[in-house]
Design a protein that fits this description.
Blueprint: E1 2-11, E2 14-16, E3 20-21, E4 26-30, H1 37-44, E5 72-78, H2 81-91, E6 97-103, E7 109-111, H3 128-145, E8 150-153, E9 163-164, H4 174-185, H5 192-197, H6 201-222, E10 228-235, E11 238-245, E12 257-258, H7 264-279, E13 286-290, H8 298-311, E14 316-321, E15 335-342, E16 351-356, H9 365-375, E17 390-393, H10 396-409, E18 417-420, H11 427-436, E19 442-446, H12 450-462, E20 470-472, H13 499-508, H14 514-518, H15 527-535, H16 542-552, H17 566-576
Parallel strand pairs: 4-14, 4-15, 8-13, 13-14, 17-18, 17-19, 19-20
Antiparallel strand pairs: 1-2, 1-3, 1-5, 5-6, 6-7, 9-11, 10-11, 11-12, 15-16
Helix pairs in contact: 4-7, 10-16
Length: 579
Amino acid sequence: MKLKSIRIKQFRSIEDSGEFAIESLYTILAGKNESGKSSVLKAIAKLSGSANPTFAADEKPSWIIAANWTPSVAYKFELSDAEKQEIQTTFQLLLNSVSISVSNTISREVNFEGVDFSNITIPDGQDSEAFKQQRKADFSLFILAKLPQIIFHPNFNQQLAGGFVATDFSDPVKMIMLNRLEKYLLTPPLTFNAIFSNPNPDERRQILHGVSQSLDGEFVETFKQNKNKLGLDIDGTKISICITDIDEITSYESSPLTIDKRSEGFQWYFNFFITLKAENATNGSILLLDEPGIHLHPKAQEEMLEFIKKQSQGYQIIFSSHSPYLIDINKIESIRIVEKITIPSSRPVKKATIVNEKIHKGTDTDALKPIIDAIGYSVPDINLDINKPLIICEGISDYYYVKALCKHKGINTDNFGITFASNADKTAILYTLYLGLGVKDIYIVLDADADGKKAYKELATKCGVAADRVIFVTGATVNERFEFAQTAAKGTIEDIFNQAYFLSSLRNSPHIQADRLNAINTSGKTNSEILKEYEGRHTTIKYALSKYIFEQITTGTQNAFASVADSLAAKLREIGSRS
């Protein structure tokens, strides 16, 4: 069974979340602090554990009178093909999905709406109504027995220490993570207690050496911040979990340190890794994570997202985050926006939590911040007049060049907004974002190159963007097969400039090394080719150059732009002339 959707009512900050879908692999709850992300996860977790989940007094919304409090969580599950067949054979029912409800008055209950028992065969001599009621009861037990296990890790407070002894397995706090470590590393009947009990110290060390190879290989592949080696060692009656740093140049190995001597971020990630690997033994589980990896470096957060995506092949993962490094912008359909909205009622409450599957007009811009940051442009750009046309550029250098063209040609930019993505393949996501916020008149400026053509295809096929809404910088056009016309001028945004002006600006812009530039044979090359050859493997100077040209250029500057820019300028002028 796969969780397909949820609806939460009267729980903590939630009056009615609205029904929202859950992806088959992983779902991200994005929103600012205090938006209610944790409340959503805690509500989902009510399905787990005891057959009689409880709703605590502190989970009651402040505006609800205690006597009238009826919290509930409704879950809809999609059935597997095998489950459908079993239900058809056993209960004579044709079903694709099933719904479960949990509330403060109802334990886990199957919702029979849409489940038709009228056509089942009644055995001879049986009371029809009594038999149907019994079949409903049997069906409920069948479904409840197949519910996936829900595992909720709010903050991974349980931490493995640097080492442990046999008696730690009797400690109710320590044993939680030790059992997970054992479940992940050891194959039954081998246990840590058996290792402790082995009287031969060489055999104990040899066993742990073999276990360490598995731990070291998988963990190091996942945590790539530094080159290191991880393993278990035993000294007398204590097993230690140690990590050794390895210099990437000299291969020098530092003295081993137990993991409790490492950074808070490393300790969190190690415990997170062990927990997920241990729980992976139960396929079909639903794993809930609340703000995972907040202590990690951004690069480590990105690596953790890849680890989560890999683990989600075994079960569903739902996690909350307000970090842009944990937002998978290539899977924007996996993101749910969690925000607080004003409740139009006479109650004293001002705002309550809702969950949106899509970005919509009026969405709290703070709730969108992690998505905005992940796409790669500055947050203030979101605050545009939705009634004006909006131009989306590929990147920040394109943004400055378009503004420079408008400045040079005297094009009125008061009547439209300009923003930018981080590169061409993010323009479709940015288009979707602004469209959801209510901007109707959107144009996308793309380079006339392979990346621009690929972005245009995605905009056209996935977003339904009309051809007249995409502006190639050279005036090029694309046919129905998404190929440039044979006569179309190819090139990038840098090629709209007169080459003499472009080279002069390049020589005078900040951070340019004159000897490297002078060594380039510019004959027969386009501006973009020259710039690419200059950059080589060095840090890009595109941004510095584009900002320099924008700051230096004035209206009417002689010979700044080539004639290939005329088409782009005409389109910008037409957009800017609208009242």
